[in-house]
Amino acid sequence: MAKKSFMQGAVVLGIAGIIIKIMGAFFRIPLANLIGDEGMGYYQTAYPIYVLFLTLATAGIPIAISKMVSERIAVDHHYEAYRVFRVSFVLLFSIGICSSAILFFGAGPIVNALKNPGAKYAMMAIAPALLFVPIMAAYRGYFQGMQDMKPTATSQVVEQFFRVAAGLSLAYLLVRDGKDFAAAGASFGATAGSVTGLLAVAGIYYYKRNALRGDVERTRRASTETSSEILAKIFMIAVPVTIGAAIMPIMNAIDVGIVMRRLQETGWTEAAAVGLYGQLTGMAGPLINFPQVLTQAIAMSLVPAIAAAYKQKDIAFLNYNVRLGIRTAILIGLPCALGLMTLSEPIMLLLFPLQKASAVSAAPCLFVMAFGVIFLSTVQTLTGVLQGLGKPMVPVINLFIGAIVKVILTYMLTGVASINIKGAAIGTVAAYIVASTLNIIAVKRYTGVKFDVMLTFIKPVASALVMSAVVWISYRVLFGFFGNALAAMIAILIGAAVYAFMLFVTKSIKKEELRALPKGGKILNLMNKFKR
């Protein structure tokens, strides 16, 4: 198999992720206005339960499929790779049937236990998605193992488009029948999206089936692995990944009790404590998650690339991908972190103009959590590397250690009156710093990779600091003419342009790396024209 860097796949998945995020915003905001807080209460009761089931069903298996497929294709065992896909398809289909049936037929008891019986129809409407999404995950994992990310990206965008279109349309049509039916209509959007997403990725598979079948038939031979052995290997990879995916949500759930209790012990009323926690998780928190779209794309693309190089014992190419992965994560994480820190208050006021007091109060939390974006970016990337190396349990243990540090610091710092809710933000950042540090130590131990400090750290930091200074000056100059909203948006655009310019000035990006991107050759030609 020809050598493939992960960059093309990461760019494809990153663009798809941004599109999906934008469509998601166009879903949530109109939906809340349409069905009100009562309807959103029903919807938000069903959707997190669905996500929990989905995480348990599909968090680790697609990664396992992509790693195992990539390893087999790397040594020209396409038939064995196809058997991995076939066995995992049956596994995920079975999981889908069980999880979908549990949620659909158990909707009544579940919502009654949650003390929100009006959410029953919403939960029943979203349950069928649990049948189709796992099947879709099998196709996606197979293509990712071949380092072809376009089918995954295409199906994700199709899935989200129909989720938004169907969900909003049904909510609008059913709102006259009651908020519970409107919430059910919105929830059914996930089912409609999963069906169309599955049709999209399955359609791509059948379009490519002749080429795929040729490689499979060419390498068909007596199998050296039984189905049970393949299943065992899938679970050995998938279970640690699933556990890792559940650590931070569980710790965040524990966080609620710690934060609320400690704030009230230091004199805050229950209502004030709820407000502070809402500023952290509902206002500042979502902004920190946005850069994850890009770094998660890097991690997903790294797994098969690292697995293939490791299987072929091509240590030089493996280390090249590790170094490039870390650099890319830093190049993305640094400007996001410093940009959010520089404009923490203007950004909060831009997004929440009707809640100015809360926005100003939430700005320090955003400032603290923004610093953690750098380390969250590297945590995700290094996790992808370790999964590709066949060490999925290592990042799980490291994240668990980080989560323990988070709980301890949150408990201690939120009990300090002058720090209050910022203590929870500091705890979260500390968790990512610890996990990132432990991950990089593990990667160096398993690969022996060495990093160019100037290229990996110093040049990107210098570029980001110049960007931050220009953004700070631009905002203050523009504020007097345009006010906060327009000044903040223009400053952000100026910052993006300055950062891109500085990356080329400092030579933080190499020409061969640019050429590896989609349309990279055209970008290089355009740059050469400007130089003339």
Descriptive keywords:
85% helix, 532 residues, mainly alpha, 21 helices, 3 domains
Summed up:
The chain has helices at 7-58, 61-74, 78-105, 107-113, 120-126, 129-145, 150-174, 179-207, 209-218, 227-265, 270-289, 292-311, 315-342, 344-351, 356-388, 393-414, 422-447, 453-482, 484-505, 511-515, 520-531.
Structure description:
The protein has 21 helices and no strands. Helix 3 packs across helix 9 (209-218) and helix 14 crosses helix 19 (484-505). Helix content is 85%, strand content 0%. The chain has 532 residues and is an all-alpha fold. It folds into 3 domains: 1-225, no CATH class; 246-451, no CATH class; 453-531, no CATH class.
- What percent of the residues sit in helical stretches (DSSP H or I)? over 70%
The total strand number stands at: 0
> How does the major sheet shape up?
none
- Domains (count): 3
Q: Distance between the terminal alpha carbons, to the nearest Å?
A: 39 Å
Tally of alpha and pi helices: 21
Alpha-beta classification: mainly alpha
Average pLDDT for all residues: 86
The backbone outline, from C-alpha atoms, is globular
Instruction: Calculate Rg over CA atoms.
Output: 24 Å
Strand content: under 5%
Q: Which stretches of 5+ consecutive residues score pLDDT under 50? A: none
N-to-C SSE string, H for helix and E for strand: HHHHHHHHHHHHHHHHHHHHH
How is this fold's topology laid out?
Blueprint: H1 7-58, H2 61-74, H3 78-105, H4 107-113, H5 120-126, H6 129-145, H7 150-174, H8 179-207, H9 209-218, H10 227-265, H11 270-289, H12 292-311, H13 315-342, H14 344-351, H15 356-388, H16 393-414, H17 422-447, H18 453-482, H19 484-505, H20 511-515, H21 520-531
Helix pairs in contact: 1-3, 1-5, 1-6, 1-7, 1-8, 1-12, 2-3, 2-6, 2-10, 2-12, 3-6, 3-9, 3-10, 4-5, 5-8, 6-7, 6-8, 7-8, 10-11, 10-16, 11-15, 12-13, 12-15, 13-15, 13-18, 14-15, 14-19, 15-16, 15-17, 16-17, 18-19
